[in-house]
Request: fold
Amino acid sequence: FEDPPDLYEKTEFLLREWVSIINSPNNKEPPSKAFSMFVHQMNVQGILKTDDLITRFFRLSTSMVVELSYRLLSEQTVTTSGQIRLKIYHTLDAYVKLIAMLVKHSGDTQNTQTKINLLNKVLGIIAGVLLQDHESHHSDFQQLPYHRIFIMLFLELNSADPVLEAFNFQILTAFCHTLHILRPAKSPGFAYSWLELISHRVFIGRLLQITPQQKGWGLYAQLLMDLFKFLAPFLRNAELAKPVTFMYKGTLRVLLILLHDFPEFLCDYHYGFCDVVPPNCIQMRNLILSAFPRNMRLPDPFTPNLKVDMLQEIAHAPRVSPNFASMIQPLTFKKDLDSYLKARAPVTFLSELRSNLQVSNEPGVRYNISLLNALVLYVGTQAISFIRGKGLSPNMSTIAHSAHMDIFQNLAVDLDTEGRYLFLNAIANQLRYPNSHTHYFSCTLLYLFHEANTEAIQEQITRVLLERLIVNRPHPWGLLITFIEMIKNPTYKFWNHEFVHCAPEIEKLFESVARSCM
Amino acid sequence: PLGPVPLQKEHQMQFQMMEAAYYHMPVPSDSEKIRPYLPRNPFATPSYYIQTPLPHSDTLEFFQRLSTESLFFIFYYMEGTKAQYLAAKALKKQSWRFHTKYMMWFQRHEEPKLINEEYEQGTYIYFDYEKWSQRKKEGFIFEYKYLE
Amino acid sequence: LGQDLTALGLNLNSPENLFPSFGGPWAETPCRPQDVDFHVPPEYLIN
Reply:
């Protein structure tokens, strides 16, 4: 509002001028020379006089290059698409060059704060123009101009340059914040470009590999959480519409890259991801849970007489992000939980447990899944420390007869089918590579199977494991060793159960698994 | 036992926008620097043509098996990329040297007549990218300051 | 049963990292050497 009267014309003139400088074929001037002359022109036009004018300049410029893109895209035909896009790229790339040079040269070389302030401002303006455009163009919204500006600006500011390198982490942070503002739930019309941006090879390289001390991991995890939260409602129902299938397959590709190149990243953040991935997304969740540290050698789960509790890694507690204990709300509930764990009192804690977890009577959405996931992991980790505190290590006998196991057994008995399914999933989500959580929860699941007072519980435990095993690979190591133990160890009398023989194909499946582990 | 859950209103809105965007997806070149030649864009070739890059085609060993002519093509038409870098390495393995003033690749045709601190002089073969052919040059002075 | 994750165009058995030539979430094949920017000596930028 209230742009100074001639600002639009000045901006248009300057932008046109700059684009022709950058794109003129016989422009032998190095961009830096052209740039300093151009900045002089901006000064003459008074653009750089105040912060407000600079902001207006960038908003107008962004709108202009976006409008030009829309105009050119509206003219494109199948045959001219290539040339049209090239024309759009030339203008957008020149605009990006201007932004990058202004960011790089604003303030003196040491003063990185001025530079990063300008970058945050410009990214914020572009995001603002995008959201406004997204709102007004609605289903005619075009991703291209914003996609190109963001990726080219990211590449420019991450090119090998000592000045930029000095504040690279702030540059990455600025982009991640902007992409969080533009997360798919906020601008679904930009979702495909957004996924392409966060999975660009340079973006992944910078955030997950080059940035030291894994400082980029938290930023990247946040963006993946945004992606899973957006996809969750669409993936929650098995039939996927084409646009969703496309997004889902794209997500699988990105997760495969992470599983292959950065498994430790998936290990650290598995909890947060599985908290938002819908429970019916079996394979995607298995993909996340299958990650294990590259320096770890996993013993073949089918090894006869594999002594899991003899593995040295089984005593190590894995890193888990985010802090799940803080997700146990409300505080009064957390207080009661802690006091029950400490003194098995108040006894009412167990009988009220289900009501604390249930949020509605609507089938399919009855329970607070996040709270249940946090509760299970919290009680389990408390149990491990409690057992360790007695100088013991978790096994089928040391995990029994404790406040922790009271809670788990109460949940197994007291919850309805839906609730128990979510509860068992929360446990199965901890069956990963050899570590203390995998070991404890594997014992817990087997203990619940053994101590179950109804066959329904045993059947449901089997279902939860089976549905994770029958999908295509990968399968988490902890899942395999738990299932193998359950069908192999006569203590569990697995083969005596009615449900094991409920249908020929089910029986055949169990037998094929049994054969592969002799 | 969770069964399907109907989409909430806000998710239906999101789906509409996503679906609209699905019909103008980004193309590969949207995320790449402008390539003067051979932009990264799929072109529908007959399905019996190779549709994916040959295995190991991004290794130096693969580039060393290419003809010199192919390496020159890659060097001059894929500049600023890993392909150009690999082509240059493969050319150097075949004793080609890049002249940074003429921006052409030279190869000794025989031992130079004269060698000193500044330059060497003799008969060379060089690749002329304007005429796109290899040519012989006798008595050429290759100044070391132009040796890349 | 989910997807066959080996059929998404990624060479999952590669001993090298995949991300440097990742073609993106929609790409059926990795980037080719001519797609990947490389910090070549400036003399090579002949254009």
Observations:
- The first helix of chain A runs from residue 7 to 23.
- Chain A has a mean pLDDT of 94.
- Chain A touches chain B through 51 residues (CB under 8 Å).
- Residues 19 and 25 of chain A are 12 Å apart (CA to CA).
